[in-house]
Specification:
Helix content: 25-40%
Oligomer: single chain
Structural class: alpha+beta
Strand content: 25-35%
Shape: rod-shaped
Radius of gyration: 33 Å
Largest sheet: 5 strands, antiparallel
Number of helices: 1
Number of domains: 2
């Protein structure tokens, strides 16, 4: 009689082990599909970041730096999935800053600009990148008097 009781218990234990294995397999599949989605989203985010960087590089290569004009907007030619929009904004109201006096650069001024680039990729992935640019230009007498010029002292 002891032998007959053990046969029923083996069937129940076997079914429970199959149930546990099935739950583990389903959980593993859900985890794997979630990881695929996360990897895809990371790829789209990376594409948007690269598109925004391309906008900054294209803006710098075009040399669209005019301190007398308001903000300028440039649009990148969209590829199959990615595009960018970059805006160049003069900083400091377009006024040049003199270089540090007392060094060999005291005959130059700098104009400062900010490039704001927005890259867009599939699944509405976007990246906003900012880049500051200082353009060196010849010395501007309207900014500050030349310290190398002869001056007369008031007595």
């Amino acid at each position: 009689m002891i032998v007959q009781r053990q046969r029923g218990a083996a069937l129940v234990v076997g079914l429970l082990l199959l149930l546990v294995l099935t739950l583990l397999a389903v959980s593993g599949m859900n985890s794997a599909s979630l990881e695929f989605i996360m990897a895809g989203n990371e790829q789209y985010r990376s594409n948007a970041f690269q598109a925004a960087e391309a906008g900054i590089e294209q803006t710098i290569s075009l040399g669209a730096f005019n301190p007398g004009s308001p903000a300028q907007t440039l649009n990148g030619a969209p590829t199959a999935t990615d595009s960018w929009t970059a805006t160049v904004t003069p900083q400091l109201l377009g006024v040049p800053l003199p270089a540090i006096w007392g060094n060999s650069w005291n005959s130059f001024s700098t104009y400062h600009f900010e490039i704001a680039s927005i890259g867009t990729s599939s699944r509405s992935a976007t990246a906003n990148n900012l880049q500051g640019v200082a353009v060196i230009s010849p010395w501007d007498p309207t900014v500050q008097p030349d310290p190398n010029a002869a001056t007369t002292a008031l007595q």
